Amino acid sequence: MADMDDENPFRDPAGSGVEDVDPINVLTVDRNATLTLGTDALIVLDEGLKHRRAASNLCGLLPQLSKTTRAVPFYNVLWAEVDDFEVIIHYAQPTGKKACKVAYINYNVTDKSLRTHTKRWVDALMDRAYPAPTKRRKRIKVLINPFGGKGQAQKIWTREVEPLFAAAKCEVDVEKTAYRGHATEIAEKIDPNQVDVVACASGDGLPHEVFNGLAKQTHPRRALRKVAVTQIPCGSGNAMSMNLNGTDSPSLAAVAIIKGIRSPLDLVAITQGGNRFYSFLSQAVGIIAESDLGTESLRWMGSFRFTWGILVRMLGKTVYPAELAVVAETDDKRAIHESFRHAVEEHRAAISKGVLHDSDDASLLEGGETELPSLKYGTATDPLPAGFQTQDKPTLGNFYVGNMCWMSPDAPFFATALPSDGRVDMINIDGRCSRITALRMLTEVEKGTLMDFPEVHYQKVFAYRISPRTAPTPPKRRLRAKIGRWLGGAGRQKEGLIAIDGERVPFEPFQAEVVPALGMVLSKRGAMYEFDGPKST
Ligand SMILES: Nc1ncnc2c1ncn2[C@@H]1O[C@H](COP(=O)(O)OP(=O)(O)OP(=O)(O)O)[C@@H](O)[C@H]1O
Questions:
Q1: Per-residue pLDDT at 5
Q2: Catalytic residue among 196, 204, 266, 421, which?
Q3: pTM
Q4: What are phi and psi for residue 98, nearest 5 degrees?
Q5: Which of 43, 66, 82, 527 could form a disulfide with 36 if both were Cys (CB 3.0 to 4.6 A apart)?
Q6: What separation in Å is there between the alpha carbon of 203 and the centre of ligand 1?
Q7: Cα-to-centroid distance, 326 and ligand 1 (Å)
Q8: Is 204 a catalytic residue?
Q9: Which domains does the chain have, with CATH numbers?
């Protein structure tokens, strides 16, 4: 894809390959204009552009524009068709670094002998705009959470996203969520044969509900495998879009969805008490859960409340005691980096050979396995099975488990996370680590190098059980603890917090196990997140 290695998907590719082009790639539309299929982009060469622009040139006061060519990366091309002899191209035009809008190119082919060539040329443009295995004209069920983030989801959808989906001729069906849990109910009833994609105009709460709704269908495995879950970032937490669309801009995310490749995603089966559900993003006990869920009274701070919440608790050396039992693959950071690098290289090789497959697993889709896989390690209330390594952690500070890399726009906590490697990445940090180190960690998170701190225990994990306890406060420190809680926004909080995909669950033991490739998402790259790996080892 044109933008695979580039932050800005709308760059004009340098050297788009107009020299030495095969005549089959050139469409002469009139005496002065040609459209050429370059290496990465459509090249519009139009002598007329010069004159047209000159006409609005404020009586010659502005310097004459001489630009007669422009390049539209194939990634930006949303649709192309020919109607009689009129060639119509819809594309996403950048409007600054973090947004785009629909624009059009229209030309009449004047030479009537070119009918067959024109048709072939337009087909070839569409093939480049949607290289295999990208599906065209996706059937998208859009769910809008009118209260997500700053309550702008409806407006964002109408102004920024809907026109792009329409220009790409996607089939769209829109529904607003009316209450908590509504997205689960909708997803439970979706016909997987009629819907390719559920796009959640929301934060990470709706995708969580949609995965769990699909998991409640009569043939859940099939539904989870067929319907790709995506996010149009409109919430306060937009991690899914950061990881898969590479952006938290709604319009750029819309293009990423239009051009997205179906990619399997591991889901994490969670059991707690009698409940069973799936997590797609993260589980947190302690500082992260508290900074996310326990800072409601600090909403006036905007997104800074998370950082503030973490700072106050870190500086107060807050601990969250728990018993932790883990089935891990490894905690050797060098080996983890190494296997991540290997996965990146394999993926690059697959792209350069053009062997990215569409992830439609025929055996699952055609009447194969349709039920949810049974739990390998039982539930949180069963006796702990063999194979779990148990440790008491009386001074645990941060327990954070991620299935994706980015947890927020500046925070690639889990630098080596992969979408479907059958493992989750687990971070444990002792709450007594020095304040200076804690501050350094906070500032290093954005580089993706948190895992390299010796104080950070980092593991690749298949399953775990955590049983958190409330830390007793020694009588002498009660006042200090109270002030700390108040400063951190948790003045009225009575018990500890657990966040799963950013949503609160009861403060009780839970067990988690990775179910490889159970879910389906759309991604820009296939089997990788939009993160180029940690900056050091
Ligand atoms: N109409 C509605 N009224 C109230 N809650 C809703 C409604 N629609 C969806 N929700 C709930 O809102 C929660 C948060 O949604 P979402 O993740 O989209 O927004 P957010 O702003 O990122 O989240 P948060 O409020 O957790 O910061 C979800 O659990 C969802 O079930």
A1: 38
A2: 204
A3: 0.89
A4: -120, 25
A5: 43
A6: 7
A7: 31
A8: yes
A9: 23-91+103-128 (2.30.29), 279-514 (2.60.200.40)
